[in-house]
Amino acid sequence: MENKYSPLGYEEMLERIKYKKMLEEMSSTNDPSYGGEQYAYPVEPGPTEKFGELLGRGLYKQPFGFNDERRAMASGQDLANVASFTPGPGNVLGYLEGRKMSEEGNPLLGSLISAASVGLPGSSKVASSVTPKLKTYPAPLQLPPPPPPPSPKPLQHKILHTADRPVELKDKVDNAEWNRSEIHGRNLMPLRYGENDTQMMSQIALAESDLYKKPNKVFPIENILQGMRRYGVTGKGNVNQNVDRQIGDFLSKEFIARGNATPAQVMLELQKNSPQIQETHAYFGLNSTMDEQANSGYSQFTTKRPIYDLDSPYTTYNESTDTMSQTYGERKFSMFDDGQLYGKAPATRWERGKTSFRNERHSEVALGNKLDEEEAPKANNYMHQRYTFETIDGEENVLVLQEIQSDPYKLTKDQNKLARNVRGVDEEDGPMDVEMLQYEFENNVHVGDFELKEFIRKGDNSKVGEIFSNRTNSEFYNYLQGSNRLDEFNEKYGNLYRNSQNEFEDLRELVMSLDESDPLHRIKTQEMMENASTFSQRGERLISGYMDGMSKFYGLDSVDAAKNLPRSADWFTDNVKLGLQTGAQNNSPFVLIPNGPRSLAPPAGETQVVPPKVLPFIEERYSNNPKYKLNYNTKGEFINLQEIEFGDYTTKLFGSPSESSINRAKSYNDFLKKGLKQTEQDYGVKLNATQYIDAYDQEFLKIEMTPELKEAFKTFRMNQGGQVNSMMPLKYDL
Fold first, then answer.
1. pLDDT band at residue 429 using 50, 70 and 90 as cut-offs
2. Least confident of 91-100, 484-493, 528-537, 586-595
3. Which of 27, 332, 347, 597 has a CA-to-CA distance to 57 between 20 and 30 Å?
């Protein structure tokens, strides 16, 4: 006999316990391939069930018939089921059931049921008789149609062209439009690439997730985010790092704290906080319209390809050094948002609003002949790129990514270090840069520096702080003073400088006393140069060591410190993607990316490194010239070529890249490996990069631009954070 006093749902609970395992498996809506914890999402009752519940509760409240709530609810559900087959109420319930099916991912069947319930317009008298009843039904059943789910929204990506018109624009913009606007009297097309498809990876990951098939259904937010993090990855426990960082950057803690949301709401929140790109682009074609006085930037600092066959015995020295003509381009990028993380983009180039940082270094990059240096964008300028288009191996339009660089971030993976060295500023200039501080001290860039350093040489270490307080950015000095470490720093740095100078003077006096023909003269001269380099390195290490407390001093010791720096973890990957997009836009047969010391040396300014195949021409030309000296190591390997003039030796050519170039190549290749892997993950493609070494022994990775890749890179998928207002078309994953 049934116990009428048993708690409501007790029997049902026993049944669920009995079949617990089976029910858990059946209720899981997660793809098992995702790995990790599985979730069972709540089942939303349909309109008929809700109507039955309403009737059941009404029956239970009546003073007759039902003293068992379960029987009342069951009877209510029976009445609702009968009503669903009754003309009028049945049509309404059928219509609502169809709407629910459409919302939950069955739009075709749902639409058919809804249409059948109300009757197709004008098809019968039944339709006309039922429709008015829909308008008079109780309000709770008159649910408004859900809004259409938002699609991934391209990021704002603006481009300012400052030189020639790029190839990819020539079929989009006629000469009249290009020349219609002026900046300071110079023709400039005010192009804003609104149609450039730059997309945020987190939006793409959400739109392509299983849960987005039910965009208006409420789920636990963490379940939605779990599916997003799995975009493009394989293996249990792995996540897409780009998507994961974007979730942290562009979904507020307050939003996540809500606990539940629809996928559509998550998409709208991402779009509300999405970044913007600002790009400045200078392009110089082979037949450039720029005059001879035009600023072609750093075009001389690129890898070169020989015109003549270096293996031919008929090639002369002059011919061996002749290189092919190159189309050259520079572009730099800034990123902003509406103030959530990075600050708002300045309304004018001269405005100094609240931004993450201002980058004064390499401000001349991408100026072309359209902008003056004082007009160059500096706020949140987080990276730049230089490239060439060349004819290589008989194929035209080959893209060579000459330089991938970030002045504020450099080649470091230490996000805490970035947060320490580059902090948000309000009305100040420049990032906190260790190298720049050391450079300014050594080179007396401010009036009075030389006199102050004379006091230091005489033992007055207090003048060290006075010099550092006079920098373009005095944050380091302010920190030392505010943390009571100034006197300690003055003492250590002053002693370092004084000892270095004393050693230098001793060497200089010895060199002056030696005959220039004395081998010791050359050795001690080299030691003088090494002395200066040693002081620079030790000075930078000392400054960097004293910056350890700056993060806490300026409130940058939280986990959010580094995320406030635009694209600090992904700028290199952005550059790789951007380069591949540029190659796709210009129909490049393949793309070359430097990945070795010899290919990285010229873009870094080391243009005097002798390619191995050119060395015989060098030896033939200079070996018998008394004004020059060829130096070799004990293994017979060429070290350098020196010119002798009035007893002084000036190095003209080097046999190999410097040690710094070799070390930089190691760090660079670590970033490149990560960038290529992340690019493949975000685009769902294989790049199949292979090693390529040219006739000058410069090392590259070669990526064939197959039709598949050209199609994929029409869109720049930006993997994470930051807003950018740009001046050139990109393909990124933000």
1. very low
2. 91-100
3. 27
Could you give the CA distance from residue 693 to residue 81 in angstroms, rounded to a whole number?
Answer: 77
- DSSP states along 245-283: HHHHHHS-HHHHTT-EE-HHHHHHHHHHT--EEEEEEEE
Please give the average per-residue pLDDT across 388-401, as a whole number: 95
101-130: average pLDDT: 54
Is the distance from CB of 628 to CB of 698 less than 8 angstroms? no
Find the mean pLDDT for residues 490-514: 89
Q: Are strands 699-704 and 182-183 parallel, antiparallel or unpaired?
A: unpaired
Secondary structure in 3-state letters for 147-215:
CCCCCCCCCEEEEEECCCCCHHHCCCCCHHHHCCCEECCEECCCCCCCCCCEEEHHHHHHHCCHHHHCC
Half-sphere exposure at residue 603, Cβ-oriented, CA atoms within 13 angstroms: 26
* Contact assessment for residue 214 and residue 268, using Cβ atoms and an 8 Å cutoff: no
Give strand pairing partners of 385.
331, 404
Residues 6+ apart with CB under 8 A from 64: none
Contact 79, 63 (CB under 8 A): no
Side-chain-side CA neighbours of 402 within 13 Å: the count stands at 25
- Between strands 395-405 and 690-693, the pairing is unpaired
CB 401 within 8 A of CB 581: no
User: Locate tokens 């913007």: which residue?
Assistant: 276
pLDDT > 90? residue 130: no
**Biggest distance spanned by C-alpha atoms of the chain:** 124
Strand 219-220 versus strand 260-261 pairing type: antiparallel
In this predicted model, which residue has the larger pLDDT, 196 or 69?
A: 69
191, 329, 331, 575, 713 from 166: Cα distances, Å: 12, 9, 12, 18, 18
Contact between 703 and 680 under an 8 Å Cβ cutoff? The reply is: no
Write down the pLDDT at residue 284.
Answer: 87
Q: For 524, how many CA atoms within 13 A lie in the half-sphere containing its CB? A: 19
* Per-residue DSSP letter, 230: T
Ordered DSSP codes for 553-595: HTT--STTTGGGSTTTTTHHHHHHHHHHHHHHHTT-SEEEEE-
Q: Quick one: pLDDT at residue 610?
A: 93
How far is the C-alpha of 583 from the C-alpha of 401, rounded, in Å? Answer: 10
Q: How is residue 25 written in tokens? A: 């498996």
**Beta pairing partners, 654:** 609, 640
* Host H or E run for residue 551: helix 550-553
Selection from 337, 234, 225 nearest residue 276 by Cα: 337
Query: Where does the pLDDT of residue 36 fall: very low under 50, low under 70, confident under 90, or very high at 90 and above?
Result: very low
The DSSP code sequence of 643-670 is EEETTEEEEEEESS--HHHHHHHHHHHH
Predicted local distance difference test score (pLDDT) of residue 229: 93
Tens of pLDDT, residue by residue over 511-550, are: 888 887 787 887 788 788 777 778 887 887 788 778 766 7
d(CA 729, CA 198): 8
pLDDT in tens, 357-370: 877 778 889 988 77
- The region of weakest confidence among 68-72, 155-159, 260-264, 469-473 is 469-473
Report d(CA 303, CA 692) in Å as an integer.
13
Name the amino acid, one letter, at 189: M
Amino acid at 297: G
Angle at 293 between CA 292 and CA 294, to 5 degrees: 95
- DSSP H helices in 28-160: 47-61, 69-83, 89-103, 107-118, 125-136
